[in-house]
UniProtKB/TrEMBL annotation:
Domain of life: Bacteria
Feature: compositional bias, Basic and acidic residues: 22-35, 42-52
Organismal lineage: Bacteria, Pseudomonadati, Pseudomonadota, Alphaproteobacteria, Hyphomicrobiales
Compositionally biased tracts (Low complexity): 10-21, 53-62
Protein name: Transcriptional regulator
Region (Disordered): 1-62
């Protein structure tokens, strides 16, 4: 849920904190690996392959 979509002030604060924590973790991971993380569809494909070496498309064909 996005910060703007949260129905209560407490929810907005929680969403903002989660977004900041995710950004911090992403920066840390990028610094550790020495390369930027892939975004959107490329990232989905990378995560899919990392689990078992098969792409998402190959998994669906089975």
């Amino acid at each position: 849920m996005g910060v703007e979509q949260a129905p209560t002030p407490k929810g907005k604060q929680a969403a903002k904190g989660l977004k900041q924590a995710a950004a911090k973790d992403e920066r840390k991971t990028e610094a550790d690996t020495g390369r930027p993380l892939k975004k959107s569809a490329a990232r989905f494909e990378e995560r899919s392959k990392s689990s078992d070496g098969k792409s998402a498309g190959a998994k669906q064909k089975i």
